[in-house]
Design brief:
CATH class of one domain in chain B: Alpha Beta
Strand content of chain A: under 5%
Largest interface: A-B, 73 and 75 residues
Helix content of chain B: 40-55%
CATH superfamily of one domain in chain B: P-loop containing nucleotide triphosphate hydrolases
CATH topology of one domain in chain B: Rossmann fold
Largest sheet of chain B: 6 strands, mixed
Structural class of chain A: mainly alpha
Shape of chain A: globular
Order of helices and strands of chain A: HHHHHHHHHHHHH
Distance between the termini of chain A: 10 Å
Oligomer: heterodimer
Structural class of chain B: alpha/beta
Strand content of chain B: 5-15%
Distance between the termini of chain B: 22 Å
Shape of chain B: elongated
Number of helices of chain A: 13
Largest sheet of chain A: none
């Protein structure tokens, strides 16, 4: 087990470096003079040149990257070009919001995705078809559009939930919950349908296996056969899909933070991109790369936990 | 064997079952992938919608009903009307004109991303799958990295660096999407690569490029269309999403995503504005999604016939007739023996057609007796044993039949009444011992679960009993083996575990479905010995399904010969071997490789049958 963790980490750590280096490389080959973009109206070449110097854009690529990495290890992600705020501070203030969104999405997607998938595999019939139709809806409407529809219904029309804003859990748990219901729902719908579909397919596959017949021949109860044996065997591909949808949840979290005006890291990244604020963008890139690497690591660990063949080989 | 051709009666007596070899029906060649795809209404509807979108996109470049960026504050936020079919937005601009003008941007975005993903994915996938080795490992490592990227943040960086050029963003998105395409193309290429005709083509000196384009590329088209459709659906959402965030094309130029953002601002008092852009996006995503799904069905139909027939099985029978048949079977049951089956008929429903798989079978079995059911593959021997457990596979069912077991009478159509017998009165072991064990649980926990189910012992006692059972089936150091998972034991060991599981509740009947077919010859003998000894010790009756006359001779008291679901004859093993009365039994006995003569072709059932059937007529 420990060997699997170390093995995975040995692959994951280089990945973080590759991704961030890729971003630096993109900046160096891109046609845009980032300094000029930041300054927009400012035309004086001296001012632009000064900013280039400040951003380190005149140094060789490897030196730029080396300096940035060295800074990261000292907890220094640089400062915003525009507001001069410390990027670490900005991210620190906002990480809680983003993480709670991620955890919310993970819980909702696991519970509803796997639940609906199992029901549809076991019951079939009209429940299965209803889930099919609903999942089509979940897949075709983009999450940013669904989020707006949710606001139109539950905030504007019914006035049950606040349209935007965020309250920290330790300040007012009830209000926190109300604030996070719609964002989590909007970010989860598409993912739920993917997970439900995969769960249904793997469950149907598991149910048709020989060992299920032999369990039935042993006289075991239907409940045990479905929920203990079939579900356990169906879980590997489901976990794979769960990992993939959580990685793509980075995208939906960005939309959702924008739409519901949640003060999270994803929103910070979009702001950074809007204003070409490179240090902020790079900091956010690092955070999200770490999140996705963490998700992949969790998926691999679940494989080992769920599948004795992986664990014991 | 003493059976000679002279002994065959020239005119078969009427009492003997009618008998003639049955030929397999040839399957027609399935139509090509594109033809199958275009036969699907949903695929056609999707293609029609996409054609409409492209046409509108092209027209929108040259003509729209109104100027898409003309502000007219006199008519802002109007619902659809004769003049403005989709209404006007917050600045009084015509929504339909904006939607039309923005269409081309979405289309080009999707095409850019799709082409990038396709070109990179196909090339890398072909190279990895065809050349393998170092190339394969390297390319797969790259795809692993790409899949783990936080894609959207990289896209944001690209947009900053390339000054919000949509084409840069969509190309990078295509590169990210190429990972999935690469994996799919690789796996298809790998499977084609392993086929013999590819080896033959290489040996005959054809170049790699020729082989790939001629033999491999046609096979990847189906899966490729599936993946590209699904990827295009995601590309639309990404393209509109970037514009929704305001990181793409600058306003006031119309884009689908930008229109959703404009609608969001006006949402409080004019929610209608969400509808046109949202529906346009959703329908186009839907079209790609349905196209992908239909393509997947069309691609898999090539080798899996009627994969989607599952669900309800049509019962074409007359219920009253069935009931009468069961009542008759019940009246004929032999009540003086341990097990008696009468009139067992198993059928498969295939649409309107019902084919009979096992026809009117009867058998009797005394306490402790072992009955062999012998026949070729597909003769219905396994179905017979499954029917006695109420475990017939989906698509097949018992049409009629009654069973008397230990004095109790059952209607074999009624699975629920048989359910309580499973694992308690009747134990069963299977042909593939490894596949019959759940790979996710230890051997101990699988036996313990059955013990607790039937005997209600506590966990500790059940664990001890499991070890005892493993000892009873002669597994060396059972404490150690109990802790293992199925993949850690051999096939022979797994079958012993299967037997231990079946023995938990001390069943009076053991159904053994080809228990030794998948095992080594030496292990076969040991397992058969074990079954025979357990049968004697526990006075347990055994039904042994097999195609091996050696097994019948070794282990059975009596045997029943099945051919295409019809009982040819049932007799004591001694009689069957010394004077088989039915020509099929003779043919089957002859088709035993142990009787092969050096220098002669191996005897097969078809050849034996033909000589037997022809011989009498020549006389």
């Amino acid at each position: 087990m420990l060997r699997i963790v170390l093995n995975r980490l040995a692959l994951a750590i280089p990945l973080v470096f590759i991704v961030t280096f890729l971003a630096f490389w993109l900046v160096s080959i891109g046609p845009t003079d980032v300094a000029a973009t930041i300054l927009q109206g400012e035309t004086s070449p001296d001012v632009v040149e000064a900013l280039r110097e400040e951003l380190g854009l005149n140094q060789p690529l490897l030196v730029q990257y080396g300096n940035w990495v060295a800074g990261i290890f000292q907890g220094n992600f640089g400062n915003s070009v525009i507001t001069k705020e410390s990027v670490v501070e900005l991210i620190n203030q906002r990480l809680g919001v983003t993480i709670s969104l991620f955890i919310g999405v993970l819980v909702v997607v696991s519970v509803f995705g796997i639940g609906l998938g199992v029901i549809s595999a076991v019951k079939g019939g009209w429940i299965g078809r209803t889930i099919d139709v609903l999942s089509l809806g979940g897949l075709v409407f983009p999450s940013f559009w669904l989020a707006l529809i949710l606001i139109a219904i539950f905030a504007v029309q019914l006035r049950w939930l606040p349209a935007t804003g965020f309250v920290r859990f330790d300040e007012d748990p009830m209000l926190w919950f109300l604030c996070i219901v719609m964002p989590v729902t909007a970010a989860s719908v598409a993912a739920i349908t993917s997970v439900a579909k995969q769960t249904r397919d793997s469950m149907s596959d598991a149910m048709s296996r020989d060992y299920i017949r032999s369990l039935r021949a042993s006289g075991l109860s239907r409940t045990s056969i479905i929920y203990k044996h079939a579900l356990r065997n169906a879980s590997l591909p489901v976990v794979t899909v769960l990992g993939l949808v959580m990685i793509s949840a980075v995208t939906t979290v960005i939309y959702v933070e924008r739409i519901f005006v949640l003060p999270g890291v994803a929103g910070l990244a979009v702001d950074g991109a809007m204003k070409a604020d490179l240090p902020i963008l790079m900091g956010c890139l690092l955070v999200f790369t770490l999140i996705t690497v963490g998700i992949s690591l969790l998926v691999d660990l679940s494989y080992a936990w769920l599948n004795p063949k992986v664990r014991l080989s | 064997m003493s059976a000679t051709e002279e002994e065959i009666p020239v005119d078969a007596p009427v009492t003997q079952p009618v008998f003639a070899p049955k030929a397999a029906v040839a399957q027609p060649k399935p139509p090509s992938f594109m033809v199958r795809l275009l036969k699907k209404p949903l695929a056609v509807a999707s293609l029609v919608w996409l054609a409409i979108v492209v046409t509108v996109g092209i027209i929108g470049q040259f003509w729209t009903p109104y100027d898409p960026i003309l502000v007219n504050l006199k008519i802002f936020k109007e619902l659809p009307s004769a003049e403005h079919w989709l209404g006007t937005d917050a600045l009084g601009r015509d929504v339909m004109s904006r939607l039309m003008a923005g269409t081309m941007l979405t289309i080009t975005g999707v095409i850019e991303a799709m082409l990038t993903a396709m070109i990179i994915g196909v090339i890398l996938g072909l190279v990895a799958g065809y050349f393998g080795g170092w190339w394969d490992r390297f390319i797969m490592q790259i795809t692993n990295i790409i899949v783990a990227l936080p894609g959207i943040i990289l896209l944001l960086t690209v947009l900053v660096v390339f000054n919000r050029e949509m084409i840069a963003a969509m190309v990078v998105f295509g590169i990210m999407g190429s990972a999935t395409i690469t994996r799919v193309v690789r796996s298809v290429t790998l499977s084609v690569r392993q086929e013999l005709y590819i080896d033959a083509a290489r040996i005959s000196g054809l170049g790699s490029f020729y082989i790939i384009t001629r033999h491999v590329v046609p096979r990847i088209i189906g899966p490729l269309i599936v993946q590209l459709s699904l990827f295009s659906a995601i590309a639309i959402v990404t393209q509109t999403g970037i514009n929704f965030l305001g990181l793409g094309v600058a306003p006031p130029a119309p884009t689908w995503g930008g229109m959703v953002a404009e609608a969001a601002v006006a949402m409080n008092d004019f929610p209608w504005l969400l509808v046109p852009s949202g529906i346009a996006i959703a329908l186009t995503v839907l079209a790609f999604g349905l196209l992908g799904d239909s393509a997947r069905d069309a691609a898999s139909e090539g080798w899996t016939k009627s994969a989607r027939t599952g669900g309800k099985v049509q019962n074409n029978d007359n219920v009253a007739e069935q009931d009468a048949a069961v009542a008759k079977a019940k009246s004929e049951l032999n009540m003086d023996t341990f097990l008696s089956v009468r009139g067992l008929t198993i059928v498969a429903d295939n649409g309107e057609k019902t084919s009979v798989l096992v026809d009117n079978m009867s058998l009797d079995l005394a306490h402790g007796e072992t009955l062999g059911i012998v026949g070729e593959s597909g003769s219905g021997k396994t179905l017979t044993s499954l029917a006695l457990m109420g475990l017939l596979p989906t698509g097949t069912r018992v049409r009629a039949g009654a069973m008397q077991l230990g004095g109790q009478v059952f209607d074999l159509r009624d699975h629920d009444s048989i359910r309580d017998l499973r694992g308690s009165t009747i134990g069963m072991i299977f042909q593939e011992p490894m596949a019959a064990l759940d790979p996710c649980f230890t051997i101990s926990s699988q036996i313990v679960e059955v013990i607790r189910r039937h005997l209600g012992l506590d966990k500790k006692a059940a664990k001890e009993m499991a070890v005892e059972l493993l000892r009873k089936v002669r597994i060396p150091n059972p404490e150690e083996i109990a802790k293992r998972y199925p993949h850690q034991v051999s096939g022979g060991m797994a079958q012993r575990v299967g037997i231990a599981k079946a023995l938990v509740a001390n069943p009076k009947l053991l159904l053994a479905d080809e228990p030794t077919t998948a095992l080594d010859v030496t292990v076969q003998a040991e397992v058969l010995d074990l079954i025979r000894d357990l049968s004697e010790q526990n006075d347990m009756a055994v039904i042994l399904v097999t195609h091996d006359w050696g097994v019948v001779a070794d282990s059975c008291d009596r045997a029943l010969v099945l051919y295409h679901g019809e009982t040819m004859e049932m007799d004591s093993v001694a009689n069957l071997f010394s004077k088989p009365s039915h020509p099929y039994t003779q043919a089957l006995l002859k088709a035993n490789p142990h009787n092969a003569k050096v220098g002669q072709p191996l005897p097969t059932i078809q050849a034996s049958l033909e000589s037997l059937l022809n011989a009498p007529r020549k006389k």
